[in-house]
Design brief:
2 strands; mainly alpha; 173 residues; 2 helices
Length: 173
């Protein structure tokens, strides 16, 4: 209908452009009255429809604005829910990461404690081995000294016996 109304107005403008100016009278023209009358009648017929359409557009505009506002509210609510969900997931992931980090730290501490205890035990074993080696060396030295002392005494006894045998050999001879 928009085009029909516009066409009617264009026809009226065309009729005015085609009109003849009256000599010596400014802004006075000779027009075809029947054609203008017909255009005006058609415009009158179209005008109520155009007004009705304009009212419908205005009502639709209000409805469209209201619908857009409702959709915007819904979108905002969905965005908030989505943001809350993302936030909750991020918190859960952060808590999970924190728990894993704590567990890894605790495991590392436990491993450090195990390593410390193992080092202490190793040091204690090394110390005991050193002490045992010193005791064995001391015992070996004592044993060798005793054996040498005993051997020296046996040798002395044997030497004394040899000296006596030599002396008796010279005395008997």
């Amino acid at each position: 209908m928009d085009n029909d109304f516009e066409k009617g107005l264009q026809e009226l403008e065309d009729l005015l452009e085609d009109a003849w100016n009256v000599a010596f009278l400014k802004n006075k023209m000779i027009v075809d009255g029947a054609k203008i009358g017909k255009c005006v009648s058609e415009l009158r017929l179209r005008l109520p429809g155009e007004i009705k359409r304009a009212r419908e557009l205005i009502q639709n505009k209000d409805t469209m604005i209201q619908t857009a506002q409702e959709e915007a509210k819904q979108m905002l609510e969905r965005a908030k829910k989505s943001a809350d969900l993302i936030n909750a997931n991020a918190r859960a992931n952060a808590e999970s990461l924190l728990e894993r980090a704590k567990a890894q730290a605790e495991e590392m501490v436990n491993q450090q404690e195990i390593l410390r205890v193992a080092n202490e035990r190793a040091n204690a074993i090394l110390e005991q081995a050193r002490n045992d080696a010193i005791n064995m060396r001391t015992a070996t030295i004592n044993y060798v000294e005793n054996a040498m002392t005993e051997s020296a005494r046996s040798l002395q006894v044997s030497m004394n016996a040899l000296e006596q045998a030599r002396g008796s050999l010279h005395n008997n001879g």
